[in-house]
## 1
Amino acid sequence: MWFCAQCQVKGCSKPLALGDNVVLPKGCPTLKLREGDIIGKYTSDPEEFNLARCSAICSPDHTEHRLAKTMRFAKMCGFDHLGLAFCNTLSKEAEAVAAVLVKNGFKLDSANCKVGRENREKLGAYTSKNPMCNPICQAELLNEAGTQLNIVLGLCVGHDSLFIKHSKAPVTVLACKDHVYDNAPLRVLEECEDCAFRELL
Ligand code: SF4
């Protein structure tokens, strides 16, 4: 069992200048991983090396908002054709994001979650009269368009799982859906200080 979320020392994150002088708890996965070839996992595939290298360069800059960083990352990777898979409830935001991406020189294909206008009752869901969300077809449309990086904007839990599973291009998430906390799911931790001690379901 891996227990990084509960680890109180986080020795793996300490500066490299400390060498081996860091505390790693018993059973720490770093002890196991350091026996193998970590970098080889990133260098054996040129596409993955490109993603890893560009994200390693982009991520330390904490002055950029996520939309700017997404574009910087895409440009650094050499991607000029992006996909946008968005939730219909965020149509206005999707239009605005699309305008920014196009203004910044990207070719863009976008797909609404309701694309196909299929009946959700066929999936055994009777909770709404609205068409079902269709993440597999969103992914297939962007695959067909040949996008190089797909951006998820507000897809629901589970729909995002299916979209990511079916997307041929790598996927990055610009925003994730939370109807209660205005698409900022971690706010639940601020507004519910004792939630770690409660069952939320
Ligand atoms: S890798 Fe080891 S040191 Fe780092 S958080 Fe996990 S258990 Fe802690």
Note: The pocket of iron/sulfur cluster is lined by residues 4, 7, 9-12, 24-25, 28-30 (CB under 6 Å).
## 2
Amino acid sequence: MTIDDAPREALRGGPRELLRWVATGAAVSRADLSRLSGLSPSTVSQRVEALINQGLLEETGAGRSRGGRRPRQLAVPTGGAVVGAIDLGAHHARVGTLDLSGRVVQGRTLPVRIEDGPEAVLGALLAEVAALAAAPDDPAASSATGSPTSGAAVGALRGIGIGIPGPVQHATGRIVSPSRMPGWNGFDVAAFCAGRVDVPIIVDNDANLMALGAHRTAYSELDHAVYIKAGTGIGSGVISSGRLHRGAQGSAGDISHCRVVADPAPLCSCGNAGCLEAVASGAALVTALRDQGVPVSDLTGVIRLIDDGDRHATALARQAGRAIGEILAVVVNFFNPQVVAIGGRLADCEPLLASMRATLYERCLPLATQTLLIERVATGQDVGITGAAHLVIDHVVAAN
Ligand SMILES: [Zn+2]
């Protein structure tokens, strides 16, 4: 074991990891878990019994015998929705229920007006999660009306994970100085939700949730990764030594207000000029096109123009890609990840991705890019709620 391996080795065989091995199909028996973890059969049995008692694992009959008593097979219960998740964006929210393996049972996208303020927005989304939890087998189930939250339905959940498109102080779940979220500054999301539903509430930044969701579903073999979320806003989440890295307060990976070379340097919502968000976010592209006299109302319109080959929109997308690449080059040289993956609505924008990639190769140390993967996050619209569910599952396992 090298010194670099130490952090992962320290986690080896913990209840979270045992659960994950069963959830991913890497292990179906106690013997598999013992072999993977290097732990003794009796230690594994003890931990498995605890997970079974907590309802996090179940036994599903007998496996194949190699002589002697046939071993009992282990599985993660999939009989119903057990975790709630909300991935809030500037204009839409993805809400869902997921099982303990992180599989989406039900997912739904709802329009959101973030400027309506936290009570109205979160109240309606919690009601939606309650409606999904109350009817786990009915895909058409929906409250959609913001009806009062059903305590009974939500009580069946192990917890609700919530992603916020702004900075979240990790220890308190409080939002601190978000851009384009009037009325949300200082709001205590966890306390508000805990007052409405009687289950654990875990709050995090949306880019962190994307990082965790992508890492657990598509990149779990890679220990060091940077995930960029490029939509209306822009941010990133960092996986270091296999774990989500939040830093001291929870702001690690927030690249939105790093300064880039831009002339003229547009004024940012934070009051500085030339921030990455003011140059390269979806909101910045909408503003820049409008300033050029192009009648575009939202990011969907911008993406349509780029897909149609509009030269103004395409030039702006290339400029945005270069700006993201400039900041990421610093991150990659400093952090040396194995993969840089971009998600969010701008990730499908080919000119942006090409410029980002070119800038990274131009500006990074050859050793840093020699084996670096630069690609799209391929996990689709559920990546945020998947990350939210994994946060809750990790919390439930750690608390027991
Ligand atoms: Zn700024």
Note: The two ends are 29 Å apart (CA to CA).
